[in-house]
Design a protein that fits this description.
The protein is an alpha/beta fold. Helices cover 47% and strands 13% of the residues. This is GSCFA domain-containing protein.
């Protein structure tokens, strides 16, 4: 008997390698995948504005990177004894305006340079629901879209569901600008499998339907776009609450790991997978806690792994094994 529906995933035409630069932007699921890429020594930049859920906020952030836009104090607002940006996650908030601006503008400058050189852009869209600012919101343009609510009062926002046409209009223009800014850039779209149940069950499904419809329209239109079915893997393949965290909203470790393995299989070639296995072995050794750090056995363990990492570093000079080399060398 079959208890799951497994399906074939289209391969990425040009596989990702460790020589590529990968910029990831979007929902919290972006950071789950980004963390795994980092662990395997890929060159990444994750969410330079912090977590973003809706396509308009993603487009505004990427546009700011293209333009190297500088945020000013007039763009911030003061609430709950801290300074915030409506365009950024609360991790960019500061106790002073200067502190917040330094974090925001440094991140934008890094993102501008990285995006110009990036080979792949991962965009994970979470929700088509947007929250526009009302006249009650502090220091805000009425009708502007908040990327993060910063736990502000509910009457500071008005909720609206984007249409497929709205999403297409925003992303189509963005994609043209991205390709003008970086002629080699390729874009991988995913829809987050995180369920936005606070919007409502029916409302969450309407939202995901809008995003899926818009993204597939764009993938069919542009040559350098690819769709990876993270959403479908969790919703239609795993399809069980066993694969969700206790909140029944976020995919758990097993689901995220399953999606990661499918991503590796679809987007990376054999040589890259072999290198990932070597890196994984080094990482395990690096995390190993010795029972007796002064024993001859442990010293031999350190020497063996030091030689392994030196050899890997010579073969792959673009990878950074500095902390592992220091550890195995006993520094």
């Amino acid at each position: 008997m079959k208890f799951r529906f497994e399906f074939t995933i289209k391969k990425l035409p040009e596989p990702i390698t460790h020589r590529h630069k990968l910029l990831l932007i979007g929902s919290c699921f972006t950071e789950n995948i980004g963390e795994k890429l980092d662990n395997f020594k890929f060159t990444t930049l994750q969410n330079p504005n912090g977590i973003l859920f809706n396509p308009v906020s993603v487009a505004e952030a990427l546009t700011a990177y293209i333009e190297a836009k500088q945020t000013e104090e007039k763009d911030l607002f003061f609430y709950n004894e801290a300074w915030h940006s409506w365009k950024h996650h609360s991790r960019f908030s500061g106790l002073t305006a200067d502190e917040a601006l330094q974090e925001i503008n440094n991140s934008t400058a890094v993102a501008h340079k990285f995006l110009k050189e990036a080979d792949y852009l991962f965009v994970t869209l979470g929700s088509a629901w947007i929250y526009t600012l009302t006249e009650k919101a502090t220091n805000a343009k009425v009708g502007a879209i908040a990327a993060n609510n910063h736990k502000a009062p509910a009457d500071w926002f008005q909720r609206k569901l984007l249409t497929t046409e709205d999403v297409l209009r925003v992303l189509d223009n963005l994609i043209h600008r991205l390709f003008l800014f970086n002629a080699k850039l390729k874009i991988i779209f995913t829809i987050s499998p995180v369920r936005h149940l606070r919007d409502g069950v029916v409302e969450n499904n309407r939202s995901k339907a809008v995003l899926i419809s818009a993204v597939h329209h764009l993938v069919n239109k542009f040559d350098r776009l690819y769709y990876f079915p993270a959403y479908e893997l969790v919703i239609d393949d795993l399809r069980d609450y066993r694969f969700y965290a206790e909140d029944l909203v976020h995919p758990n470790y097993f689901a995220t790991q399953y999606v990661w393995e499918k991503l590796v299989d679809a987007c990376m070639d054999g040589k890259t997978k072999e290198l990932m296995e070597d890196i994984h072995a080094v990482t395990l050794a690096f995390k190993h806690k010795a029972f007796n750090p002064h024993s001859a056995q442990h010293k031999k363990f350190l020497q063996t792994n030091y030689e392994k990492v030196v050899r890997l570093q010579q073969e792959q000079p673009y990878l950074n094994f500095a902390k592992e080399l220091n550890y195995f060398e006993g520094k």
